[in-house]
From TrEMBL:
Top enzyme class: transferase
Reaction equation(s) it catalyzes: adenosine(1518)/adenosine(1519) in 16S rRNA + 4 S-adenosyl-L-methionine = N(6)-dimethyladenosine(1518)/N(6)-dimethyladenosine(1519) in 16S rRNA + 4 S-adenosyl-L-homocysteine + 4 H(+)
Organism: Paenibacillus helianthi
Gene giving rise to this polypeptide: rsmA
Binding site for S-adenosyl-L-methionine: N31, L33, G58, E79, D104, N129
Pfam families xrefs: RrnaAD
Biological function: Specifically dimethylates two adjacent adenosines (A1518 and A1519) in the loop of a conserved hairpin near the 3'-end of 16S rRNA in the 30S particle. May play a critical role in biogenesis of 30S subunits.
Family: Belongs to the class I-like SAM-binding methyltransferase superfamily. rRNA adenine N(6)-methyltransferase family. RsmA subfamily.
Sorted UniProt keywords: Cytoplasm, Methyltransferase, RNA-binding, rRNA processing, S-adenosyl-L-methionine, Transferase
Official protein name in the record: Ribosomal RNA small subunit methyltransferase A
Length: 294
């Protein structure tokens, strides 16, 4: 294919939109990429080759799908908007290793999808320009289901990317940072201006790469409990960890028991949730569990 005839070229994108009479649905987060350099950066960050599969969420009119088709052995793209399916089948007709599925990624059985579509490849990456209104639920579903994923490279809202990659101590660090870092190692790939999309979104974007961990970096006996402790610690960000935990786990008791458990976990009661590392949350959850505080 010639250099400037990619689906992502502004002329071709506009031509496809016109030819099929497509109208953008804001409610589905439809902002299509029109910059081949950004597509190259996204796909390069995933480290694909012919032994790799790529799962794309929300292919739109296929700009990224086409780029993925050139790099990966197998590509599956899950698109919720029925109107886009005939367009995708048409514009991607010359790539037999691309499969288009009309589905809501939040409802699809991903274990089954992986077994059906990716049996022949050695590893799988998720690569997507995500619809921003459902970024977090989509990423949490991918991570929590413990799919056999190598990495996840996604375009998301810049602020959300910064929160995912944040270290303890800063104002971006919160329960999202902890959840994402429990399952993966996040790395900001690049910041992306609004001008590379049609239509332009209201927010700045960033590409983030989540290298999926084979096992969590800390030992956690009960993940549900661990994440409840994390959530409780951030209920009111301005409050100390002791006050937040008291409200959730010790509403009727004095502070003595809570303070001695915090001491056992090596955590000062006056600290705030945003200063605790993953290790400290794991320790705290273990101490509370051992004391029967669930
Ligand atoms: N990949 C294309 C690109 O980069 O040009 C389009 C990206 S656009 C930001 C997001 C796409 O996700 C849209 O095509 C939208 O219809 C689709 N989408 C929105 N919600 C979805 C969901 N729950 N499941 C699957 N696709 C979804």
């Amino acid at each position: 294919m010639s250099g400037n005839n990619h689906i992502s070229s502004p002329v071709r994108t506009k031509e496809i939109i016109q030819r099929y009479g497509f109208s953008f649905k804001k409610s589905l987060g439809q902002n299509f990429l029109i910059d081949q350099n950004i597509l190259d950066k996204i796909v390069d960050a995933a480290g694909l080759d012919q032994a790799a599969g790529a799962l794309e969420i929300g292919p739109g009119i296929g700009a990224l799908t086409e780029r993925l088709a050139m790099s990966a052995g197998v590509v599956t793209a899950v698109e919720i908007d029925r109107r886009l399916i005939p367009i995708l089948r048409d514009v991607l007709a010359s790539y037999p290793h691309v499969k288009i599925r009309n589905d809501d990624v939040l409802k699809v059985n991903l274990q089954e999808l992986f077994a059906e579509d990716f049996a022949a490849v050695e590893r799988v990456s998720v690569v997507a320009n995500l619809p921003y209104y459902v970024t977090t639920p989509i990423l949490m579903k991918l991570l929590e289901e413990k799919l056999p994923l190598d990495n996840i490279v996604v375009m998301i809202q810049k602020e959300v990317a910064e929160r995912m990659a944040a270290s303890p101590g800063g104002k971006e660090y919160g329960s999202l940072s902890i959840a994402v870092q429990y399952y993966s190692e996040p790395e900001l790939v690049c910041i992306v201006p609004r001008t590379v999309f049609i239509p332009q979104p209201n927010v700045e974007s960033a590409v983030i790469r989540l290298k999926v961990r084979e096992r969590p970096p800390v030992e956690v006996a009960d993940e549900k409990h661990f994440f409840e402790v994390v959530q409780a610690s951030f209920t009111q960000r301005r409050k100390t960890i002791a006050n937040n935990l008291k409200a959730r786990f010790f509403p009727e008791e004095g502070r003595e028991r809570l303070e001695s458990l915090l001491a056992e976990a090596g955590i000062e009661p006056s600290r705030r949730g945003e200063t605790l590392s993953l290790e400290e949350y794991a320790r705290l959850s273990a101490v509370l569990l051992a004391a029967g505080i669930v």
